[in-house]
Amino acid sequence: MSKLQAPLYSGEFHRAVAKGDAALLEAVQRGFDAISKREYAAIEARWYGSPVITRSGLSIVAVGAGLALCLLLVVIAVRNVAERKRAEAALRASELTFRSISNNFTGGMIYQAVVDREGHRTFTYLSDSVNALYGVSAREAIADASLIYDRIHKDDIATLIQAEEEAIRSVRTFKAEARVLGPDGQVRWSSFVSTPRVMPDGSTIWDGIEFIITERKLGEEELREAHQFNEQILSSAQEGIIVYGLDLRYRVWNPYMERLTGMPAREVVGRLPLEVFPGLEGSGLLERLQVALAGGGPSSHDFRFAIPGTGKSGWVSDTIALLPDSKGAPVGVIAMVRDITERELAGEENAKLLAQLAQTQKMESLGSLAGGIAHDMNNVLGAILALASANLETQPAGSSGRRAFETISAAAVRGGKMVKGLLGFARQHPAEERELDLNAILRDEVHLLERTTLSKVRLELDLFPGLRALRGDSGALTHAIMNLCVNAVDAMPDQGSLLLRTRNLEDGRIEVLVRDTGCGMTRAVLERALDPFFTTKAMGKGTGLGLSLVYSTIKAHHGQMEIRSEPGLGTSVRLVFPSAPAAAPDWEPAGGWPAEPLSRGLEVLLVDDDELIRSGTQGLLEVLGHAVRTTSCGEEALAELAEGWRPDVVILDLNMPGWGGAGTLPRLRALLPSVPVLLATGRADQTALDLVKAHPGVVLLPKPYSMADLKTHLSHLG
């Protein structure tokens, strides 16, 4: 206060005022505040109220003016100090508020960091919440910044540095997320938001905030895991999953649907069904989706699909239902799609097998009927042929009687061939079995066709040179293949080509392919192609038995038959046969059958249940000079032999009541081990062949037989 005792106008006072000495100005202000109003009025009257101005008074006035100016400067200075004090107080209050907020910021911390030109980092400010986040005080972290930076996850440091560098280049705030090791040893997630200020010395000041975002990141991770889980479900599902939006555009198209249709999700999602699959027009899908959106409940539907763009096709079963959100409000429609192609194909194959079974049963039924008819017809034709043959030899050459009997004989022979064709329905085994060369059979067929097709059909042979052998009936197979060739030629009335091809299959079987370029067949005709008596040919052009006989022949040879045809694209018939297991010598009649013809008449035992056959055959034998005894069954024949009579030859009918031929033959052979036996039958099936093989001296005599046939067989004995 000693300075205040000096004159107010002293130079020291002026300098103090000019410098804004706070202590001096405060003292002056307190001095003014201490002067009473009366004292202040007296001073004012003393210095400003004198009415007379003298030289000395002028000096006093001058001094008073100077003092007034000083006082004015003092007042201004005092006021400035007061305003500064108020600003400082406000600043202190603001700083206190900022520190209070930052120190109580529990969700993160506020910091200021400096990075010098060499990249050295220091903190100039840290809120007190740093202790909760990093386990160190602000003073410790300011002294050693590594206490903070070393807690950053090593895998995230590069991300933060890159964000800082980018922020410096663009001079803008950077945002980055990183993992931090907390004081409890647990890893948390933090988000750093900081703004750079590049200083003249090249250093950078970062004013930033760190927010703890662990809960948010955990939520995001859970959401991501849930999304991945849902994606895994969609990817692993063994059914198609489709989600339609409220606008019925595709929203989800899982990998199963991509594989099923060949359409990737990127070409489907966001589009309407008819935009992607025009073939759905008229399928009822859109109507079902609308019903589902309206709350109509789930619905299922099976349908066939075909996608020309990808070549995918098949059968699917889809179930659609309304898709609600967590509050039950509809957000779209979900569809579950199953590929049922195998099931449908299996059903079609099962239906095909059932149809084949029905066809087989039908053929077997017709075969049984045909077999019975053939047996009786053979007996009738046999009697006619026997009598005609016997009387034919008694007529003079060129006479009308001889011509009549020749006509009767020819008609009977023709009838016998027709009966033989009917027996194809009943045949379960070939009439004979010998090793065959299918290539040779096909060459003979082509040779015959070349002379009958008048060159209107081009014949192609593609024969495998090392074709495996087949055991079977040459005549039956020749007839079957000829039927196929004739049908093929008839399907090409103008021109075309016919291919006959053979191949060895990998499984050891043999394949024969007969393919034409004719008119082909519709599906309806193809389904009935094997039906007996079904024909598309004009009246008198066909009987409808051709393919039925072919089928029966192939089946009798343990083969398979497959027909493929389309209108305008021709027909292919594929035959597959088992190859001969091993070369075996063809059977020849065993001993007991004379090799040289004899000249004497024979004693013949004729065993047949049909009176017409017994009568007609007896007449033939007698014309040939043989003596005949007849019986109607095997039991009577054995009784005749039991009396001691021994014939030179036995003609035994295979199909008779009682023992029948099969039961009589062993008994005959037991009594007459060396007597030749002619086994007569109109049905030379495997049963007859087995009997011939099992008993020496037995030969088949096909019905109906003529006198010439008997003469040939008996000439070696007479």
- CATH homologous superfamily title of the largest domain: Histidine kinase-like ATPase, C-terminal domain
- Nearest-angstrom radius of gyration? 61 Å
Distance between the termini: 181 Å
| Proportion in β-strands | 15-25%
CATH class call of the largest domain: Alpha Beta
User: What name does the CATH topology of the largest domain carry?
Assistant: Heat Shock Protein 90
Shape: rod-shaped
| Average pLDDT | 79
Q: Give the CATH architecture of the largest domain.
A: 2-Layer Sandwich
Our count of helices gives 23
Could you give the order of strands across the largest sheet? 2-1-5-4-3
Describe how the helices and strands are arranged:
Blueprint lengths: L10 H9 L2 H13 L2 H12 L6 H49 L4 E8 L5 E6 L3 H5 L3 H6 L2 H4 L4 H17 L3 E8 L5 E12 L5 E9 L1 H23 L3 E6 L4 E4 L1 H7 L11 H4 L8 H9 L5 E9 L4 E13 L5 E10 L1 H52 L7 H27 L7 E3 L1 H13 L6 E6 L7 E3 L1 H17 L5 E9 L4 E8 L6 H5 L18 H11 L3 E7 L3 E9 L24 E5 L3 H13 L3 E5 L2 H9 L6 E5 L6 H12 L5 E5 L4 H9 L3 E5 L4 H8 L4
Parallel strand pairs: 12-14, 18-19, 18-20, 20-21, 21-22
Antiparallel strand pairs: 1-2, 1-5, 3-4, 4-5, 6-7, 6-10, 8-9, 9-10, 11-13, 14-15, 15-17, 16-17
Helix pairs in contact: 2-4, 13-14, 13-19, 14-18, 15-16, 16-18, 20-21
